[in-house]
Protein 1
Amino acid sequence: MAVKRTPFIAGNWKMNLDHLQAIAFVQKLAWALADAKHDFADAEVAVFPPFTDLRSVQTLVAADSLPLGYGAQDLSAHDSGAYTGEISGAFLAQLDCRYVIIGHSERRQYHGETDADVNAKVLAAHRHGLVPVVCVGETAEDLEAHGPSAVPVAQLRAALEGVDGSKGLVIAYEPVWAIGSGQAATPAQAEQVAAALRGVLGEVLGDEVAQATRVLYGGSVKAANIASFLREPNVDGALVGGASLDIDEFSSIVRFKKHVGA
């Protein structure tokens, strides 16, 4: 029996917006979606602010009962201790975060995060009741050397080592060659990799988990192309970078069903 997966539109702010800007942004985003009568059953929406913004976002979401989710951009593999600058999953849980991004290509590239590091962080997220958004993807060099899906599949397999699928997770396929380039993968390319990733989920965690887990596409996502990705059977949403900082553009991405007649 086919499982209905609610599309998930996630906005990764990266290192942008201070806590005051975050308050204004979340308020305006909520107003824009309310004005457009967005049905959150059509698409779940979450933002991923910098850590210093999270308490402000938590307070606003709780006080105004906003139907927006939020999460962190990273977490430590450690729960506590002498790890200067690290952020424990316990801290994120106390801020009522539901999600945390793990293994983003920028973390892998600039901070040297390995597949083993990603796996340790997935396990840490689960220890604190957080849903990891596990990022996988290949560079242009990877694509040329190994072909489509080989690197993302290997990364996902490593990330799932010892993971309990019943605790929930989201997978985000982000072709590094497309991020910020303005040149997205084609829907067919995204579907090919998403299907392969779902296959890995089935092998490692079982078919029930595989069918329930949302697989997102990320890489130069915009309002003009989002619907074409979400028409693919194995693409369940998007991890949006730069476009998530533009309220009009991001709210238009969220409302993909209406603005393009998808």
Protein 2
Amino acid sequence: MSAGSAAQASHLLENLHTAVLVFGPDLRLRAINSAGEHLLSASGRKMLGLPLSEIVPDHEALTDMLERALKHRRCYTEWGMELRLNLERTAPLDVMVTPATAVDGKPELIVELVNVESLTRARRDEQLAFLHEAARKSLRGVAHEIKNPLGGLRGAAQLLERELDGSSLREYTQIIISEADRLRNLVDRMLVPRGRSQAVELNIHEILEYVLSVQGAEPPVEFERDYDPSLPALQADRDQLVQIFLNLVRNAVQAAGSGGRVTLRTRVKRNCSIRQQQHRLALQVEVIDSGPGVPAEIESEMFFPMVTGRADGVGLGLSIAQALTQAHDGSIEYERDGGQTVFRILLPLD
């Protein structure tokens, strides 16, 4: 293989969403792509040369597959094999082992690992995207009706602001006017095709602080900030980003209830997969609350339009947050962790 062909093959391997590992006849790792590093939560440089037994704990079933493939020079596939990827995480994986011949003529094994949970999530995201588009069409009629009272609300706030000339209370009328304008712009964007219509450079912490100022403290909860100050700027639509986190924070505050706690946490994620795309750098924002979590009966459908666990809810908050996140090529996930509810947003930075 020429140097150019080898470089092209390496480039293609790096851009595969599927985790690919290459082992020699001694079952030591010869190569791994970025998706493999992400799946195993380890650096490829540190793993190269290590035996399979040191890379995958509880490796016996996988070792048996590789040894059979070496012996019989045949492909083997195992669906939903439970593998311990590290000391803390076990996942069902579809495993495909293919015998090959290295450049030096020695046998090697190409191992493809597909996370079944990730694949299921991707299919769910596709289904959600279809449902969101259907909901978007039905909401367009509602959007026209929303704009009229928004105009009246803004006008009333302006009149009130004149009466409060010089008063510190004008801060609140400014919030009303600003939110009315933001919602009007958001409604306008609901009437046009999907996409980031006004992407600008943003500081995610400024967005979160604005959301907290709009949310206020009803019911009274304890807000905790766990920010990573080293985060780079993000290219995004400001109004849409505000709406995403406003919906999530409001849900968290209502779930936590009076005296509860809501935590906002920001981090950088490296070599992560977002909606079947591999990204070297992404922004992760978690909205965490101390509430009871999403009812089990709607957990699998919580992002669908018109699905809600509250008697007074309309079931649009999470649906809109999901649609706007996907418009930014991002993803939104939910989990219960240590008695806390976590909604996690991932947005690509690369």
